[in-house]
Amino acid sequence: MRSARLLPALLALSLLAATRAPAQPVMFIAFGDSITEGAFDDSGFDALGYPPRLVRRLANVGLEASVDNRGKGGETTAEALSRITRVLDDGGDGLLLMEGTNDINDGISPETTTFNLAEMARRANARGIETVYATIVPRVPTARFDPTNRQTAERAALLREQAWSDGRRLVDPFQVFWTTPDVFDVFYSGEDRNVGHPNGEGYDLLADTFTQVLNDTDRVPPVPGAVRPADGASGVSPQAVLEVELFDFGAGIDLEQTTLTVNGAAVETTLEGDAARAVLTGRLTDQPEGSVRLGLDTRDLAAPDPNVSSAVVATFFVGEDPGGGGGGGPIGDVDGDGRVDGADLVAFALRFGAEEGDGRYEATYDFDGNGVIDGDDLALLALDFGQS
Q1: Partners of residue 341 on adjacent β-strands
Q2: Which of 98, 189, 222, 287 could form a disulfide with 134 if both were Cys (CB 3.0 to 4.6 A apart)?
Q3: Cα 188 to the chain's mean position, in Å?
């Protein structure tokens, strides 16, 4: 179950309905880009997007609320930072924050996107407005940027970690849409093939996803954070360590029913953490060269029907990617995704100070090869930080 330090933040929005007078509905601010604004909503409603739908759904579960749609099409998180203060100055009880898909178009790093979102939440908190983070929806397979959703999934993983760290609620449209059958055919507009916006049914699904979290209904299984080796990595050792960070923002992870898999077969898995956040560790055992699917089988503690997931969280290559994706990366790219970023820094920090012969020591992180992972190695990583 969730630790005591998280409970006040998690319960705050639910308590709003109980503490306000009946004539005073809870005031939510829906802040984001064109997907919040309601672009490509073909429902025929006068009010577009998920916010008006959310009002109706919350009323159906006994929560009187208003949702002010402050979406702005084409906006990046950097641009959002420049306008959110004015929006927050208008007041409200809760901030529903879903933004970042345009950052992918503009080449803004996932770490910068997450930092910007956290800063928006900090500004809201300073005004007594509780923030609910939301991941962004997947992009269509014809998208000009990130058609495979590798970057979008990485941003979702970072935001999950940020939400856990901040003790905030998380709505996870990325997980819900990604695991919905025929999602691109049924729930997306056929008119937008460059990014991917929901159609009327998609905005219904989005409103349902927000409603479940605000009403404390758990419909999402445990979800991954950082994964190592990273999705798309190549040049991976046949004895590589496997590591998956796992979060649950509802009933909690059923740790006894959670394991890593390699190419569909369960591997010996060590778990550290608790039902809110756990780190799963395993190891390849003389894996032959070729593509490897790192999977995760898990379920949560929701009763009476737990949410179950069996999914591939990364595909990487032992040896070089025959598609030409591996080799020649910058120093510090320890996860092999082609960029030196925050994920590499976190992985490095976990091994800082280790010497050859220690259980934590791995030569991959000893960039100068002197047998100890130390400040000199950190300096080498810092020189290439942000490079790809």
Answers
A1: none
A2: 98
A3: 21
Predicted local distance difference test score (pLDDT) of residue 385: 80
What does DSSP say about strands 26-32 and 94-98: parallel, antiparallel, or unpaired?
parallel
Query: What DSSP line would sit under 314-329, residue for residue?
Result: EEEEEB--TTS--S-P
Token couple for 61: 């579960």
| Coil, strand or helix at 170 | strand
> Which domains are seen in the chain, by residue range?
4-214 (3.40.50.1110), 223-318 (2.60.40.1220), 328-388 (1.10.1330.10)
Tokens at 41, concatenated: 């909503």
- How far is the C-alpha of 335 from the C-alpha of 284, rounded, in Å? 15
Q: Are 207 and 198 in contact (CB under 8 A)?
A: no
Predicted confidence (pLDDT) per residue in 176-198, tens digit = 999 999 999 999 999 998 999 99
- Rounded CA separation 240/226 (Å): 16
The answer to whether the Cα torsion of 310, 313, 315, 319 is positive or negative is negative
Residues 359-377 pLDDT 10s: 777 877 887 667 889 887 8
CA-to-CA distance for 288 and 238, rounded, in angstroms? 7
Q: Among 27, 33, 69, 39, which Cα is nearest to 203's?
A: 39
Of 124, 28, 114, 36, residue with least CA distance to 75: 36
Among residues 255, 258, 305, which one has the least CA distance to residue 1? Answer: 255
Q: Which long-range contacts (CB under 8 A, 24 or more apart) does 180-189 make?
A: 180/205, 183/138, 184/140, 184/141, 188/140, 189/40, 189/42
Strands 130-134 and 223-228: unpaired
Cβ distance 18 to 56 under 8 Å? no
